[in-house]
């Protein structure tokens, strides 16, 4: 079994209570049209180019401002998929299964959806290879960026549009 113990020198975490079922939150992750509605911080727009929610499946998105061309945002693969419970993806291997050197940081993200009396306890753990990468990700606005997209995910799931 893999050791997934948190290491504050290498990991960034975010938690939020979402007042919707884990299945509603899961659909917002697994449906390309829904994912595009919350995956990048507003006022940016996301386009889901590839979403194969299965182990080894591609995860490719692009983003743009109000006008202009879409630019690459995410190109990685899913490592672990436990429907309505857990997703793990990385950008260290791209969607073509080639080693990648993603900018600005390499990471592996684990998303867990735990059933709770009030809905879903949503937890993100983003793991980095060294303290410098972790610190750079934090300095670049990890908490603001992941926090704003998590809020948008919560708004979407809580609105009932993911049923």
Please outline the helices and strands.
Blueprint: E1 11-18, H1 22-30, H2 32-38, E2 45-51, E3 58-64, E4 71-82, E5 86-90, E6 108-116, E7 119-127, H3 131-139, H4 142-159
Antiparallel strand pairs: 1-7, 2-3, 3-4, 4-5, 5-6, 6-7
Element-by-element helix/strand order:
EHHEEEEEEHH
* Gyration radius over CA: 15 Å
**End-to-end span in angstroms?**
34 Å
The total strand number stands at 7
Helical proportion, percent range: 25-40%
Main sheet: strands, sense, barrel = 7 strands, antiparallel
Uncertain residue ranges: none
| Beta-strand residue percentage | 25-35%
Tell the overall outline: globular
Q: What does the model show?
A:
The protein is α+β, with helices and mostly antiparallel strands and 163 residues long. The chain has four helices and seven strands, in the order E-H-H-E-E-E-E-E-E-H-H. The chain has helices at residues 22-30, 32-38, 131-139, 142-159, and strands at residues 11-18, 45-51, 58-64, 71-82, 86-90, 108-116, 119-127. The chain has a seven-stranded antiparallel beta sheet with strand order 1-7-6-5-4-3-2. Strand 2 (45-51) and strand 3 form a beta hairpin. Helix 1 crosses helix 2 (32-38). It is globular and about 40 Å long. The model has no long low-confidence stretch (mean pLDDT 96).
């Amino acid at each position: 079994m893999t050791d997934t113990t948190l290491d504050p020198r290498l990991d960034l975490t975010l938690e939020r209570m979402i007042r919707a079922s884990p299945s509603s939150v899961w659909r917002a992750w697994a449906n390309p049209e829904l994912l595009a509605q919350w995956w990048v911080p507003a006022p940016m727009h996301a386009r889901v180019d590839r979403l194969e929610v299965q182990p080894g499946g591609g995860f490719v998105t692009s983003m743009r401002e109000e006008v202009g061309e879409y630019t690459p945002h995410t190109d990685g693969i899913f490592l672990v998929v436990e429907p309505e419970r857990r997703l793990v993806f990385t950008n260290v291997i791209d969607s073509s299964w080639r080693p990648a050197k993603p900018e600005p940081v390499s990471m592996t993200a684990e998303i867990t959806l735990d059933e709770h009396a009030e809905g879903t306890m949503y937890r993100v753990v983003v793991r980095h290879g060294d303290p410098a990468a972790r610190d750079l990700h934090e300095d670049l606005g990890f908490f603001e960026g992941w926090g704003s997209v998590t809020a948008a995910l919560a708004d979407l799931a809580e609105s009932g549009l993911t049923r």
